[in-house]
Here is the input.
Amino acid sequence: MSRDENEPMTGPSSIGCAPLTGTAMSTGQAEAVAPLLKALADPVRLRLVSLIASAEGGEACVCDLNEAFELTQATISHHLKVLHSAGVLAREKRGV
Here is the structure.
């Protein structure tokens, strides 16, 4: 879907989406939300969140998540750390 440079920019409501707010975001709000969106912008991390959210009780073990990807446990752990740092996920160590 390309946009002609001469076309006016449109908001979400003009393309069929409900607006998220009645006013524009402040600089502070945008700066607060940006790290969350950055963390979710990676396809692996987005899929991890989806897998965890759909798991029983909304929680999952790293060992179970590894099976869904062709990635090393270290890579999965890195992605989970990024999501945790952004405030998307909470973590708890068990059975060590």
